[in-house]
């Protein structure tokens, strides 16, 4: 839905290219879905799990009954009862410091936060925010042409994301992440090389189209893998009591990196050139492959308890006579 919304925004912006006060209309139209969401949020119920934990059981059951029918409804209520019992037994309060003090939680957060950082530092915010400007720098000077070609890039992003939904449980998280980063690296080689050549006096139309091809390839490889992967993995790798805290911290890492990249890119391009800027992203993608190989476990087919055991194995070692869950997951995939 995120990538579909981005695609729709490009469609609307392209339609407004010939309207007087173009950029003002673009910003104005963007307020409409925000207002709609604000209104609809008033009718959104609280999380059933949160209600149950606050002993508002009747309200929780009421929300669940709108989603599930019997016997699934009874199963969901039983799960909430079990979670509530676990909550009562655990008197320890989760602290931010525990994330870094406990070795297994620290390892999980380094993986989750690292994936979120990689997603942004490898350049997706730059590609999506500045693709019209990048296309103009590649030789397509018309605003309308730049927005139209950006529309194609955004459409590829939405389509390839749908592909990722089908692939993630087939090939596994780690394989998909590595495939995605490898393709992004190759695409950035194409982008950085062509943009470097154009920036040094070889401004041919052919090189411009090759740069567009590199841009499209980047999106096609990014969207099925490194687009959804950090969010999916972060929902799977933390113990229950740390899931909300670590998930929020890793999301913060994502948006901090997004701000850094989106606010610094044009200044970096002015200072060193477009081709050289893409070379920096190329280096990040190459390093990220190493990060995924060594620090990201395969979580396909594992329960939350089994994932927790994977981190315990990495933090404290394992019995050499027992094959690790991570190894079993790799074999099964």
TrEMBL record:
Pfam families, sorted: Sugar_tr
Q: Does the keyword Transferase apply?
A: no
Name one cellular component (GO) term: membrane
- Has UniProt tagged this entry with the keyword Transmembrane helix? yes
* Annotated GO MF terms: transmembrane transporter activity
Keywords (alphabetical) are: Membrane, Transmembrane, Transmembrane helix, Transport
Instruction: State the source organism's domain of life.
Output: Eukaryota
Give residue ranges for domain Major facilitator superfamily (MFS) profile. Answer: 1-300
Q: Where in the cell is it found?
A: Membrane
Recorded hits in InterPro entries, A to Z, give:
MFS_dom, MFS_sugar_transport-like, MFS_trans_sf, Myo-inositol_Transporter, Sugar/inositol_transpt, Sugar_transporter_CS
Q: Where are the transmembrane segments?
A: 23-44, 109-135, 147-168, 175-199, 205-223, 244-266, 278-296
Q: What's its membrane topology?
A: Multi-pass membrane protein
Q: Which PANTHER family match?
A: PROTON MYO-INOSITOL COTRANSPORTER, SUGAR PORTER (SP) FAMILY MFS TRANSPORTER
What the record says about family reads: Belongs to the major facilitator superfamily. Sugar transporter (TC 2.A.1.1) family.
This protein's name:
Major facilitator superfamily (MFS) profile domain-containing protein
Q: What's the name of its gene? A: Vigan.08G004500
């Amino acid at each position: 839905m995120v990538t579909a919304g981005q695609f729709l925004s490009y469609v609307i912006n392209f339609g407004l290219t010939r309207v007087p006060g173009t950029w003002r209309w673009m910003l104005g139209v963007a307020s409409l879905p925000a207002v709609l969401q604000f209104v609809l949020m008033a009718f959104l119920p609280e999380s059933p799990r949160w209600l149950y934990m606050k002993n508002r059981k009747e309200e929780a059951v009421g929300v669940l009954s709108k989603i599930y029918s019997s016997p699934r409804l009874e199963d969901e209520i039983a799960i909430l009862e079990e979670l509530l019992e676990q909550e009562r037994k655990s008197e320890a309060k989760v602290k931010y410091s525990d994330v870094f003090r406990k070795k297994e939680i620290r390892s999980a957060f380094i993986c989750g936060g690292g994936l979120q950082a990689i997603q942004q530092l490898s350049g997706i915010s730059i590609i999506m925010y500045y693709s019209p400007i990048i296309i103009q720098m590649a030789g397509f000077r018309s605003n309308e042409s730049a927005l139209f070609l950006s529309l194609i890039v955004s459409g590829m992003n939405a389509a390839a994301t749908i592909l990722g939904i089908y692939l993630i449980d087939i090939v596994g998280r780690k394989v998909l992440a590595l495939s995605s980063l490898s393709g992004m690296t190759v695409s950035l080689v194409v982008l950085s090389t062509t943009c470097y050549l154009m920036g040094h006096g070889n401004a041919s139309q052919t090189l411009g189209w090759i740069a567009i091809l590199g841009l499209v390839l980047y999106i096609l490889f990014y969207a099925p893998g490194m687009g959804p992967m950090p969010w999916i993995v972060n929902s799977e790798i933390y113990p229950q009591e740390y899931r909300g805290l670590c998930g929020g911290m890793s999301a913060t890492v994502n948006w901090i990196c997004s701000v850094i990249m989106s606010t610094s890119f044009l200044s970096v391009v002015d200072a060193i050139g477009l081709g050289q800027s893409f070379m920096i992203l190329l280096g990040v993608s190459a390093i990220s492959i190493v990060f995924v190989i060594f620090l990201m476990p395969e979580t396909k087919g594992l329960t939350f308890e089994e994932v927790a055991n994977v981190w315990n194995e990495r933090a404290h070692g394992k019995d050499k006579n027992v094959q690790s869950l991570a190894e079993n997951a790799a074999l099964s995939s």
